[in-house]
Amino acid sequence: MAITHEAITVADAVATRLTTNNYAAERKLCIMYKLAELKTRKITVVPVGFELEAESRASDKMTVLVQIGVQQILAGKDWDAEIAALMDVEREIIAKFNRLTGLSSLGGKVIAIDNNPVFDGKAILESNLFIGIITLTVQLSTAAGAQQ
User: Fold this and answer.
1) Which residues are within 8 A (CB) of 109 and not within 5 positions of it... i.e. 6 or more apart?
2) Nearest residue to 95 via CA among 28, 19, 18
3) Cα–Cα distance between 12 and 136 in angstroms, integer?
4) How far apart are the first and last CA of the chain?
5) Which residues have CB under 8 Å from 133's CB, separation 6+?
6) How large is the average pLDDT for residues 61-66?
7) pTM score, two decimals?
8) How far apart are CA 2 and CA 145, in angstroms?
9) Do the beta carbons of residue 88 and residue 41 sit within 8 Å?
10) Cα-flanking dihedrals φ and ψ of residue 96, to 5°?
11) Which of 84, 5, 109 is closest to 47 using CA atoms?
12) With CB atoms 3.0 to 4.6 Å apart as the test, which of 5, 22, 37, 98 could cross-link to 33 if both were Cys?
């Protein structure tokens, strides 16, 4: 199984967990939306990296980085309230993946969560677009050579 396939499989599992928890998440490899499409909130999950290291002679440790994007055009009526509401969505998503959350179908676990910066201020100023990125670090143990 290719490493790239493993990273996509992890991103699929993350998107599935979000969708089963009432967040319409979609796994993508490339995020391309027209601004008009972002009038409604989009939650996208993208595999962005991996690292493979020997854990023992019989197993490898794979670390996969997955980013969850929360994107929506702000209506402009009350940016503070709109941003606060979208930050609440980010916090709720993070709560679904508390550290050491198991992704049992994969034999993996979330070992770190990053949400810094909480949102992209420049995108708000230039396009009224809220973009928040949550990065999950997921660790998998696999039989040595299984990724080839």
Assistant:
1) 100, 101, 102, 103, 138, 139
2) 18
3) 13
4) 6
5) 67, 68, 69, 70, 115, 120
6) 91
7) 0.88
8) 10
9) no
10) -75, -15
11) 5
12) 37
Q: Which residues 6+ apart lie within 8 Å of 88 measured at CB? A: none
Tokens 């972002």 found at:
38
Q: How far apart are CA 128 and CA 19, in angstroms?
A: 26
Please report, as a single letter, which amino acid is at residue 146.
Answer: A
Length of the chain: 148
Residue carrying structure tokens 């939650």: 43
Q: Alpha-carbon distance 113 to 100, whole Å?
A: 10
The type of residue at 143 is A
pLDDT tens for residues 115-130?
998 999 999 999 999 9
Helix, coil or strand: residue 75: coil
Token couple for 95: 């709560």
pLDDT digits (tens, 9 = 90+) for 65-83: 999 999 999 998 899 999 9
